[in-house]
TrEMBL record:
Family of the protein in this entry: Belongs to the group II decarboxylase family.
Domain of life according to the entry: Eukaryota
Sequence ranges assigned to domain PDXDC1-like third in this UniProt record: 558-666
Gene field: Cni-C14H10.3
Protein transport recorded as keyword: no
Keywords: Decarboxylase, Lyase, Pyridoxal phosphate
GO MF entry, a single one: carboxy-lyase activity
Cofactor: pyridoxal 5'-phosphate
Biased composition (Basic and acidic residues): 37-48
SUPFAM superfamilies for the chain: PLP-dependent transferases
Residue span, PDXDC1/PDXD2 second domain: 438-552
The name this protein goes by in its record: Pyridoxal-dependent decarboxylase domain-containing protein 1
Organismal lineage: Eukaryota, Metazoa, Ecdysozoa, Nematoda, Chromadorea
Species of provenance: Caenorhabditis nigoni
Length: 734
């Protein structure tokens, strides 16, 4: 009876997923289009039926049963309610049904795309296989143990051969909210094995007392591991001594560092002398930002000379082990580590599949029934894809990296971070002397930043005065800021071509700023990226780089033109990648220093420049209005320029148009109004002052005879007799 119920539940789950797929397509704006490519793995989904009916969002109620019956799928009321919650987000706005923790995320949830709900056939199978695990749990003990062992052995065989890691065992991490947390769970499993290997059965029976008797364990972590494992290891295993190893000094160490193996050797000697027990070292091969590798071969040598400890690795370069013809040195070195954790589900674009950890056998350790059964999703995935398909997808990602490297190296204006000679490096990669990088970080090569950095360093080395160094620091910050604006503008211009490749921007920090990140292992399978996408991106980047180069060249000449156009003032402006900004100064304000402009002058200048921008935009779209926060006035912004030769004509256009507006009847009328208002304000001030004088002197002093007598008896002080008078300044409006 129980088996029948579970089988029925699994059928309901499959039918429910079918219903969700249909309903989500009906709600999607692109529901009338069909696609043969999977959004998740790039596999063929087969033909999709066109859906003509629409499903309107309704409150969660029993009325949804009619929708289920009309589609031919009979679902229990509980699943009908869940169905509506998934395919529609209107219920999030209902105060009576919205969970307390979700109320603050209502607007965010309603704007999310439903594209992520579309699953490939493999994705659907993996999602519904969760029901199979529950079904297997209800079988007899011997039956379920046999199934779990068979699944585990099959997956073990696949991954051991795929990653050339012989005599290994597989561990599938519990699913977490993020991949980083799942990788952390894999690291935790490696630590568990290391404890069992180092302390034997004492750790299981004595706990922390084993640490007292045999020495406290020490965990060494690569500086390239971008996650906090200290608190995790302390709470899970009671390990308090976690050492983040020093970085190997280099120009890029402020972005991402590798293990300094010489410093590690010294730390290891100190720990051994203190009676501590080196437990595990967590290294990274194929870092997430620069794609660098810790020198695992050097660490293996240190382990052989000094003391034995468990060596665990993670990173994207592990994927290169799956090549049909992998690098022999890579295979030789990585086959000597004790365990490795890798997010192969991300590389293959597979949802709902756990992160995998491969490890060597440990005496006394045997995978539990639950750990064996957790390999079910990968048995499904490996059976569906086959080893050949998995290798094809990973090799395609490295091929895209190779093609992108070749394309970027051919553009002189592009800087590939971490690559000194891109052309030579690309040639070596194409000749298979080097493996294609797992990640490429590139940006616009803004030479002025490098010059500013070098000038700043020279001043510091020469011990120049503080003022000169401060000026150099200010110049450097301005150049770094402008370089970020240029790369941000590039990002917006390349957005359509970037989406198909999963290219995004990251903040590198230090003097590197914003850069583009291309990691095909993470996105190629999900977006079905291919070589044509890379080639289109490179062509678009080449075209846009010409505009950026012309703009930067024009910006350098911009300040030189100010002497030819005395009516224009160059103003500093932030958050702008264009040439710069100018402000047309009317002749009535020209003699006043910008630092001394009052509120009326600023209003007058802003009014003229806003009208100037309005007329310029009808002629050329390169102009726009802006605000100079330094002086509090509106200005004319020059945008990106495709040809530096046009700069003089554009500046001349601004100057001539400004004069035209200044001499126009409309502007003269506004100036006349300003003068009239000033005169009226002066008259009003004189009237108020006269009234105040009369009030202070009193009425007796105003009478012809009595006034003389009062003034003789009580003369006025010189201050009270002072007559101030009034003047109206046409230039300042005061």
């Amino acid at each position: 009876m129980c088996g029948v119920l579970c089988e029925s539940s699994f059928v309901y789950a499959c039918q429910f997923l079918d219903k969700i797929e249909v309903s989500s397509q009906q709600h999607s704006p692109a529901s009338n289009s069909s696609s043969t490519k999977s959004e998740d793995s790039g596999l063929d989904d087969g033909p999709k039926k066109s859906v003509t009916s629409t499903v309107s969002a309704k409150p969660i109620s029993r009325k949804s049963s009619r929708m289920s019956q009309s589609s031919g799928v009979s679902l229990p009321p509980v699943l009908e309610q869940l169905e509506h919650m998934i395919i529609s987000d209107d219920w999030l706005g209902n105060e009576t049904t919205t969970p307390v923790g979700l109320k603050q995320h209502v607007q965010v949830a309603k704007t999310r795309s439903r594209e992520g709900q579309k699953l490939s056939e493999l994705g659907r199978t993996l999602v519904t296989s969760a029901s199979l695990k529950s079904y297997i749990d209800l079988l007899s003990s011997h039956h379920r143990q046999s199934i779990a062992s068979w699944l585990y052995g099959s997956v073990n065989h696949v991954f051991s051969n795929l990653f050339r890691f012989s005599d290994s065992q597989v561990y599938c991490s519990d699913p977490e909210a993020t991949i980083s947390l799942s990788i952390r769970n894999g690291i935790g499993h490696a630590v568990k094995l290391a404890l069992k290997s180092s302390y034997g059965t004492d750790y299981a029976t004595k706990g922390w007392k084993a640490f007292v008797e045999q020495g406290a364990p020490v965990v060494y972590v690569s500086p390239a591991l971008h996650m906090d494992v200290s608190s995790y290891l302390a709470s899970e295993f009671g390990i308090a001594d976690v050492t983040i190893l020093p970085k190997l000094e280099s120009d890029l160490s402020e972005i991402e560092g590798r293990i300094d193996h010489q410093q590690f050797e010294k730390i290891l000697d100190e720990d051994l002398a203190a009676g501590k027990k080196p437990l595990i070292l967590i290294g990274v091969v194929g870092t997430t930002i620069l794609g660098q590798n810790d020198m695992i071969s050097k660490i293996l040598e240190i382990r052989e000379k000094k003391a034995h400890f468990w060596l665990h690795i993670t990173g994207q370069a592990i994927a290169a082990l799956t090549f049909r013809e992998p690098n022999n040195v890579l295979v030789h070195v990585l086959s000597q580590v004790d365990s490795m954790t890798f997010p192969i589900a991300l590389w293959l674009g597979i949802p709902s599949a756990p992160v995998v950890t491969l490890h060597k056998s440990v005496e006394g350790y045997k995978a539990s029934y639950r750990e064996k059964l957790d390999s079910l999703p990968w048995w499904v995935a490996s059976s569906y894809l086959s080893g050949k398909k998995i290798v094809d997808m990973i090799e395609n990602a490295f091929l895209l990296s190779k093609v992108m490297l070749k394309g970027l190296s051919a553009i002189p204006e592009v800087e590939i971070v971490g690559v000194e000679n891109p052309v030579d490096f690309a040639n070596r990669v194409y000749k298979s002397k080097y493996t294609a990088p797992t990640v490429l970080i590139f940006k616009y090569n803004y030479v002025s930043i490098k010059n500013a950095i070098q000038h700043h360093k020279d001043l510091i080395q020469k011990n120049e005065d503080h003022d000169a160094i401060s000026i150099a620091e200010k110049t450097l910050q301005d150049e770094l800021e402008y370089g970020d604006y240029l790369n941000a503008w590039l990002r917006d211009g390349l957005l359509p071509e970037s989406q198909a490749l999963g290219i995004d921007t990251i903040e590198l920090g230090g003097n590197y700023g914003i850069a583009f990140r291309f990691c095909p292992l993470e996105h190629a399978a999900t977006f079905s990226s291919h070589i044509d996408h890379v080639q289109r991106f490179v062509r678009k980047l080449t075209d846009i780089m010409r505009i950026v180069e012309s703009t930067v060249a024009a910006k350098l000449k911009f300040s030189e033109l100010k002497d030819d156009f005395p009516s224009l003032v160059l103003l500093p402006i932030r958050n702008w990648a264009g040439i710069g900004a100018v402000c047309y100064i009317p002749s009535i304000v020209k003699e006043t220093n910008p630092e001394d402009w009052n509120a009326i002058q600023k209003q007058q200048i802003s009014h003229l420049n806003l009208e100037l921008v309005h007329q310029l935009k009808s002629v050329d779209a390169a102009f726009s209005s802006g605000d100079c926060t330094r002086y509090g006035v509106s200005c004319v912004k020059f945008g990106m320029l495709s040809d530096v030769k046009d700069l003089h004509n554009l500046v001349l256009m601004v100057s001539d148009k400004g004069k035209e507006i200044e001499n126009s009847q409309q502007y003269l009328d506004s100036l006349a109004d300003l003068i009239r208002q000033g005169i009226e304000a002066a008259n009003e001030a004189l009237r108020k002052e006269n009234d105040q004088r009369l009030q202070n002197e009193g009425m007796m002093r105003q009478l012809p005879i009595m006034g003389s007598l009062v003034n003789w008896w009580s003369p006025l002080t010189p201050e009270s007799q002072n007559i101030r008078g009034r003047a109206f300044n046409l230039k300042t409006g005061e």
